[in-house]
Amino acid sequence: MSEYRAFFGDGVKPFAFPTRELIEELERKTGQGVGALFRRFRSSDYSFSDVTEVIRLGLIGGGTTPADADKLVSVYAIGRPLAEVFAVADGVITSLFFGSDDTAQVPAIHPDDVQQAAVSGDLSAAVNEALKESGL
After folding, report:
1. pLDDT beyond 90 at 120
2. Does residue 136 belong to any structural domain of this protein?
3. DSSP states of 80-117 as a string?
4. Is residue 110 part of a domain?
5. Which superkingdom does the taxonomy of this entry point to (predicted)?
6. Is 1 exposed, middle or buried (0-12, 13-18, 19+ CB in 10 A)?
7. How many domains are contained in the chain?
């Protein structure tokens, strides 16, 4: 099982898809095969539901109870800037496909950094800088 860890909500959380059933639930909830869903993420053709389901089910696979995962998504995904939420979901789905290196996790971008970057119009620079700092 490949576990992805990222800051989400109130701290760093583990995300994973350790079972076939959880992957199939992701496919059922999004109406897409996992390969098609990954392609949608790569082409920026995803829906908000795609993003929140990847996060919710990834949290469950990482050990969060279903009730807590639902609450975390309700509180911390809905109403937040989409770029911030997408960054977490993208890391989770990418980890599902390629695994994750425990020593080189994709860095969490703090919400304040995303907001400041959005205000200045330089979100891509903030993301690129965070990636450089992590050595990825």
Report:
1. no
2. no
3. S-HHHHHHHHHHHHHHHHH---TTSPPPPPPHHHHHHH
4. no
5. Bacteria
6. exposed
7. 1
